[in-house]
Write a structure and sequence with these properties.
By secondary structure, the protein is α/β, with parallel strands linked by helices. The protein has a single domain, classed as Alpha-Beta Barrel (TIM Barrel), CATH 3.20.20.10. The chain has nine helices and eight strands. An eight-stranded parallel β-sheet has the order 7-6-5-4-3-2-1-8. Helix 4 packs across helix 5. Pyridoxal-5'-phosphate (PLP) binds next to strand 8.
């Protein structure tokens, strides 16, 4: 067994344990393996153990891996999530090569992704990135801006609004992490309850290597884990 496969199994155990502690069904939490800075070989290794969803932050690097893995004989179809900032001049590459974009925080970017999504592909799955703890240098919408953008994005033809994504700063302890994740969960519930979306959001993407237990405790449906699977960057 490779180190990556062993790590992957340890992360799955953490997810299962966190779900039981929170009285949740482990099937309600998906694992996104964040492969940024690691090569196609690392992704292929994780895929041998059944991992299918991978997250990339840097567009050019991500596209290179998407193409390399698609060309590998016997490789099952993988699901690629863009989780890093998307500038206007990169939307076409993203629309052509990724399945999900979790880092949408402007209408203009969403419109371009919808316009540039190739006709033969299913709609792009979208999460809006929320700056839930108000970090000054961080991308993401202020919580008060999310509802309006959610409504607009949900009407774009080649996108499907799936949910929210947040990357809060690590807190002092489990309770502090839970408190900030609970804010994202409350916003998610509030938007679904507002009745402005024709289809409710089903994805709350929060929790990374350091805080996945707190995120699952707070209602995360997708944890994005890099370091604990692939090692230090
Ligand atoms: C790098 C990254 C992760 C993974 O972080 P780890 O701490 O290595 O698990 C998750 N989400 C986003 C948006 C990232 O940029």
């Amino acid at each position: 067994m490779t180190t990556i496969v062993r790590n992957l199994q340890l992360v799955r155990d953490r997810i299962t344990t966190a779900c039981f502690a929170a009285n949740r069904n482990p099937a309600t939490v998906r694992l996104l393996a964040v492969s940024k800075t690691f090569g196609a070989d690392a992704v292929a290794d994780a895929a041998t153990d059944g991992q299918r969803a991978f997250g990339e932050n840097y567009i050019a690097e991500g596209v290179e891996k998407v193409l390399a893995l698609r060309a590998q004989a016997g490789m099952p179809a993988l699901e690629w999530h863009c989780i890093g900032p998307v500038q206007s001049n990169k939307t076409r590459l993203v629309a052509e090569h990724f399945d999900w974009v979790q880092s949408v925080d402007r209408l203009k970017i969403a419109q371009r992704l919808s316009e540039q999504r190739p006709a033969g592909l299913p709609p792009l799955q979208i999460c809006l990135q929320v700056n839930i703890d108000g970090g000054a240098n961080k991308s993401g919408l202020a919580p008060g801006e999310v509802l309006a953008l959610a409504q607009e994005v949900s009407q774009l033809p080649n996108l499907v609004l799936r949910g929210l994504m947040a990357i809060p700063e690590p807190g002092a302890d489990f309770d502090a992490d839970c408190a900030v994740h609970a804010k994202t969960k409350a916003l998610f519930d509030e938007i679904n309850a507002a009745g402005v979306l024709s289809v409710a959001m089903d994805t709350l993407s929060m929790g990374m290597t350091a805080d996945l237990e707190a995120a699952i405790h707070s209602g995360s449906t997708m944890v994005r884990v890099g370091t604990a699977i692939f090692g230090k960057r």
